[in-house]
Fold this sequence. Notes:
alpha/beta, Beta-Lactamase, Rossmann fold, 2 domains, 7-stranded mixed beta sheet, 9 helices, 16 strands, 26% helix, 29% strand
Amino acid sequence: MDNAVKKILPLRVGNALSKLDEERIYEIRLRSGGISVNYGGRFFGLSETGLCGFGMKISYAEIDEVVLKASGHSIYAVNDQIKNGFLSLSSGVRIGICGEVNDKTIKNFTSLNIRFPHEIKGCADGIMKFIKRGKGCYNTLIVSPPGCGKTTLLRDIVRQLSDGGSNVLVADERYEIAAFHDGESLDVGRNTDVISGADKSFSFEQGIRYMRPDVLAADEIMTVKDVEAIERACHGGVGVIATIHSMGKDYRNRLKGLGFAERVVVLSSESVGRIDGVYDGNFDRL
Length: 286
């Protein structure tokens, strides 16, 4: 487990997690009702002895302390992240934050979700032939419910395109794809440029203007503004790869209005990282 995470957790929680296979820990959820762990794609409670049905309790004061430590004991310094509902640590670890929201910040924290990235080189090997086009790529959407491996797959696609000679620009809005932090990042390829912490509209518009990428990559399309930024990039002749959340089979309805998609990669909702299929823009299987 990332040392930065060990330093911010209560000692009893860290000791309990040390009894588990760290490679299988995807998320740690801290709630007053009980601590839970996404372990290998399934949720369990966390007790002092390991996995269980109902997890150990954690106080609001302890949750506050985790946020304070994660901020480097200066919540004000990272308030731009906190008011958007998250905090970023090293190596792509992201902490989702719930609490009392006002127009300036989130305070009186009630629960946290600590998410761990998993760098799996080669996980995109089987689909690159459908995505790569010349020096760029087909405009591609990666679709699945949360926590099923979209970002991990996106990262490996970026790495392979980049190492294959494409100039790739990553819009790493929440520090999860490249996870650039304190001079270090995950492997996104030798021909990749990264804009961290900015929204997709800024990253795409400024990136196209000044960096001249062949491919743009972004995680989690959520808003109309995100879609508009991607469409402008596509009209500018740049290939785009992005992820989008979708539950079950409703992705076809959700994607009908996104006419830019030329490839749709659908991940399984039942097995983390498993690719159910690759489709063209008309949803015909390739």
